[in-house]
Amino acid sequence: MKQFILILFYFTFTLATYAQDREQQYDKEKLDAARIAFITNRLDLKPPQAEKFWPIFNQYQEDRKALMEEMSTLNKSFMQETDNDRALEKIGKRFEIQQKLLDREKVFMNEIISAITPVQALKLNGVNREFTRQVYRMQQGRERGNRNN
User: Residue 39, exposed/middle/buried by CB under 10 A (0-12, 13-18, 19+)?
Assistant: First the structure.
């Protein structure tokens, strides 16, 4: 009987935790729509600009994400025991990824200036970071609200 109660408790706890995690997951489509509206508004993109801008921006974001994941994997491997030769190899690999990120950003800037003005392109990085900060603050507020309930 005790085992049955423990199993029932475990199952209920697991189900409740899973449901809570699912509620706290963000809706990627809503987040993307909010980012589009935020950046479009802050950069004052005109419809013809936006039509050219978003495919370039989205491709850049995908490329950047892939490189950042590669960097993350490499950083996790730093925690493993290694010798000096392997450490130097990993340091070199990190610089290679950082150079790829920089090279990709240069290409992106050249591409994006064909879609928007240089002034808008210059503002883009700050606007994108501002959006990320706002989302982060909203998430922090939700987490504090959930803890106070």
Answer: buried
